[in-house]
Automatic annotation (TrEMBL):
Its main location: nucleus. This is TAFII55 protein conserved region domain-containing protein. The keyword Transcription applies. Residues 21-40 are annotated as: Disordered. Belongs to the TAF7 family. One of its GO terms (biological process) is transcription initiation at RNA polymerase II promoter. The lineage of its organism: Eukaryota, Viridiplantae, Streptophyta, Embryophyta, Tracheophyta. It is found in: Nucleus. Pfam families: TAFII55_N (PF04658). Residues 1-146 form the TAFII55 protein conserved region domain. GO terms for cellular component: transcription factor TFIID complex. Keywords: Nucleus, Transcription, Transcription regulation.
């Protein structure tokens, strides 16, 4: 299986990447510095910099709310699964705010907007005092100490 991730960029950055790929495919790149792409992350592993030539853009590594499968085909008839993708690199413009948290709250398509809140079970509300009391009772039972009945 290949290692894959989603690269989400703004339309202006997408145009620059497309132009760069077309020039490199045609072999007409005049300056090798203009034809370079680089992605580097800081110590935290979640924030970094995406470079196209001499231009820098802030980037963030985000977890997707669901796993996305990717497929490829060799003969336009049969699809072969190549990877399960669980992360996305989001490249932003300088003035765009950084996303909050390590998880992207939306999926990749409009129907998955706010997917975590709308489609998945919420965590139950637990009383911390009750959990602590049950934990103490379980430890007592494992140690063989008689305990009061749980009600």
């Amino acid at each position: 299986m290949d290692e894959q991730f989603i690269l989400r960029v703004s339309p202006s950055v997408a145009e620059q990447i497309e132009r760069l790929m077309n020039e490199s495919a045609a072999g007409s790149s005049s300056n090798p510095d203009d034809a370079s792409l680089d992605l580097s992350f800081s110590e935290d592993g979640r924030s970094g910099t995406f470079m196209i030539g001499n231009q820098r853009f802030p980037a963030s590594l985000l977890d997707l709310p669901t796993v996305v499968e990717s497929y490829k085909t060799y003969d336009d008839s049969f699809l072969v699964k190549t990877a399960d993708i669980g992360q996305m690199v989001m490249v932003r413009e300088e003035d765009d705010p950084a996303p909050e948290g390590a998880e992207y709250e939306h999926g990749l398509t409009p129907p998955m907007r706010d997917a975590r809140r709308r489609r998945f079970r919420r965590e139950p509300d637990l009383n911390a005092e009750l959990v602590h009391r049950v934990e103490k009772d379980l430890i007592s039972i494992m140690q063989g100490v008689p305990t009061r009945m749980l009600v």
